[in-house]
Write a structure and sequence with these properties.
Blueprint lengths: L1 H14 L5 H12 L4 H8 L3 H22 L1 H20 L3 H14 L1
Length: about 110
């Protein structure tokens, strides 16, 4: 569950502004503010089930945005290359680090 939560949180960072204001607000309360469904339901004036349905619809929408745009996948690939470059720097292999960083910059 935690891994999905981290993924959804990242998807919210990338695509949250594309959601409806209600979906965005509900997901931010659930994922970022760590509020329970009951707490969100009380503040929004809807049922706990309504909050659950909103979160699930938003998650589906976020996954669809990622499927079409791929920003999270691109970010993760760039992050992996940066980590490899850092490891090369730590090991003293600056030539390999420079090559990784050049590739990373070209992809951006």
């Amino acid at each position: 569950m935690r891994e999905k939560s981290v993924r959804t949180d990242l998807l919210l960072d990338f695509y949250g502004n594309l959601l409806t204001p209600k979906m965005r607000r509900t997901c931010e309360s659930y994922y970022n503010d760590d509020l329970t469904l009951a707490e969100i339901a009380e503040s929004e004036g809807i049922s706990r089930q309504g909050v659950h349905d909103t979160v699930k619809r938003a998650e589906k929408q976020l996954e669809e945005y990622e499927e079409k745009l791929g920003l999270l996948k691109l970010f993760e690939m760039q992050q992996a290359k940066a980590k490899i470059a850092l490891e090369h720097i730590k090991s003293g292999d600056t030539d390999k680090a420079a090559k990784e960083l050049e590739e990373l910059i070209e992809e951006m």
